[in-house]
């Protein structure tokens, strides 16, 4: 994915990933509530089901689009939406799970969503910059570069989820995008290894 096109098309990607997923979750939840009547689901349980089934995975579609020679912008929008969609689906799942099975209030949910989603976004950007800073100080040592790259991924997820209470998935996605945008800090040999 071309990171520069991703940043240029960022708001379209966010529109699809956030609002598109919310609409798909709502429609799937309404359908589940009406079709699975025998389960006696509450609306929150139906929306919980909707958040699970609404996540998309367009890997085959992107490969086909690339083979057909479609525009780079379209492929980037679809890839970017897929990356952010997974993290947003997990956030929506947690919200509807808490609404269905705990005593979170609407105010707490209203504060939870931006904190988790935006926190993951910004923490991933910062973690990406720190990782790139480390990588720029390594000279021609593939093992160290690979170790830093893999360790930063796991650390970003763990610190995001367990320490900060934000979306580790969104943080790791943004970490990867940030490293990719500044990939000149990775040696060519390691870049080949990381793409395998």
From TrEMBL:
GO MF term set: potassium:proton antiporter activity; sodium:proton antiporter activity
GO cellular component assignments: plasma membrane
Domain of life: Eukaryota
Annotated organism of origin: Desmophyllum pertusum
GO biological process, one term: sodium ion import across plasma membrane
Keyword Ribonucleoprotein among UniProt keywords: no
One Pfam family from the record: Na_H_Exchanger
Membrane topology: Multi-pass membrane protein
Domain Cation/H+ exchanger transmembrane, chain residue ranges per copy: 1-189
This protein's record includes keyword Cell membrane: yes
Protein's name according to its UniProt entry: Sodium/hydrogen exchanger 10
Keywords in alphabetical order: Cell membrane, Ion transport, Membrane, Sodium, Sodium transport, Transmembrane, Transmembrane helix, Transport
TM annotation in the entry: 42-65, 112-135, 155-177
Subcellular location(s) of the protein: Cell membrane
């Amino acid at each position: 994915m071309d990171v520069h096109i991703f940043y240029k098309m960022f708001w379209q990607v966010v529109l699809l990933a956030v609002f598109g997923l919310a609409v798909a979750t709502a429609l799937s939840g309404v359908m589940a509530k009406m079709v699975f009547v025998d389960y006696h689901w509450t609306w929150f349980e139906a929306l919980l089901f909707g958040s699970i089934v609404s996540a998309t995975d367009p890997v085959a579609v992107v490969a086909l689009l690339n083979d057909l020679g479609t525009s780079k912008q379209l492929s980037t929008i679809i890839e970017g939406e897929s990356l952010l969609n997974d993290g947003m689906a997990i956030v929506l799942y947690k919200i509807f799970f808490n609404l269905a099975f705990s005593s979170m209030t609407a105010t707490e949910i209203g504060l939870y969503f931006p904190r988790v989603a935006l926190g993951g976004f910004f923490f991933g950007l910062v973690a990406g910059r720190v990782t790139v800073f480390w990588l720029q100080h390594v000279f021609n040592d593939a093992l160290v570069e690979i170790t830093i790259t893999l360790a930063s991924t796991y650390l970003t997820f763990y610190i995001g989820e367990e320490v900060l209470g934000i979306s580790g998935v969104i943080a790791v996605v943004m970490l990867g995008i940030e490293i990719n945008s500044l990939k000149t800090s990775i040696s060519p040999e390691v870049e080949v290894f990381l793409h395998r």
